[in-house]
UniProtKB/TrEMBL annotation:
Keyword Phosphoprotein: no
Keywords noted in UniProt: Cytoplasm, Dioxygenase, Iron, Metal-binding, Oxidoreductase, Phenylalanine catabolism, Repeat, Tyrosine catabolism
Segment forming the signal sequence: none
Residues bound to Fe cation: H196, H278, E364
Family indicated by similarity: Belongs to the 4HPPD family.
Lineage start: Eukaryota, Viridiplantae, Streptophyta, Embryophyta, Tracheophyta
Places the protein is found: Cytoplasm
Name by which UniProt lists this protein: 4-hydroxyphenylpyruvate dioxygenase
Record-linked NCBIfam families: 4HPPD
Amino acid sequence: MGKEIESSGSNSVGSSKFVRTNPMSDRFKVKRFHHVEFWCSDATNVARRFSWALGMQLAAKSDLSTGNMAHASYLIRSGECNFLFTAPYSPSIAQAENLSPAATASIPTFDHAICRAFVASHGLAARAISVEVEDAETAFSISVSHGAKPSSPPTVLDNQAVLAEVFLFGDVVLRFEKIEDTLSYPLDYGICRLDHLVGSVPELGPAVSYLKEVTGFHEFAEFTTEDVGTLESGLNSLVLGSNNEMVLLVICEPVFGTKRRSQIQTFLEHNDGEEVQHLALVSEDIFKTLREMKKRSGVGGFEFMPPPPPTYYKNLKKRAGDVLSNVQIKECEELGVLVDRDDQGTLLQIFTKPFGDRPTTFIEIIQRIGCMIEDDTGKMYQKGRCGGFGKGNFSELFKSVEEYEKSLEPKKTTECVAA
């Protein structure tokens, strides 16, 4: 245990005093999340597992069968949500053909040595967060001129898309992409896009200052340990958003001096550094999505965090009865869905357990209800931030993760424990 630290460079006021503003301060035009690339040691089986667990179809591949001797990459997709899984081949494969390991790589920023070191350090984890921008070259140039640590300069891909990278935090990169992609994709279990990601860092202040300077993103929300912590542990958190609030980055730090180690500190130690703690995926129908996912929980899918106690749902009708039907409220309790709302909309949430060997990265499934507005063409669409983040839900998640970590503590026995 260390001494207690202040939140966000001593400037945090907590959720109750936070005033929501949007100064439209982006340094370059940001459209939306495009994809998340995971680096791993076996892209084939990881992609298949995520596809099975989340109902995401294989959309593209690059491997030995396509002439790629550097890495295997598989892209799975549902709606606008794209996950890319990449694993390195042995460098001797390409060298046997008198080629450098990167000569046949389909991803120009791929580096064999860096990929292997990343996987050895972090295990299965997010390497790149791709954001679709109006101009990737401009985004890279402006961000670097404002202090971004460059990872890869702009490169034109075969399909004429432009890709560039700067570091986001730790070994994770923020990938800028200009993509001419107007296709629509089928939904299977109902997942339609990436809503936000949560990163864990040792210190909130420097990470937030860096990202605000690099991107121009504004402060969307903040939470202190008084808002979401328990009597045993806590964290501090701040949310940054793009102008259109379709790209939301949540940064969390641990607090010290509490009875239990902060779950953020546990994450940092098991992950061997900063990383993406979880990814929030939007569902068009969270009840449909969860019914499909839970069918597969015990057969290769994702397990879920323990639900809140029955008392959580006793007053749910009073809190959300004007938005959810009695049947939906009952489904929330049966499926363990958390419900919260702000002055604009309602947020439904549930969280999986970590999806790898380490107690690190996990998935959040959400549905936002409300905030429908009309664009210039008369088409109705939903604001990306509808329903906010839900302090009550955040607190319940924190408690759930704390209980999950307790279940991982060593038992005082040398015998094997049955599953």
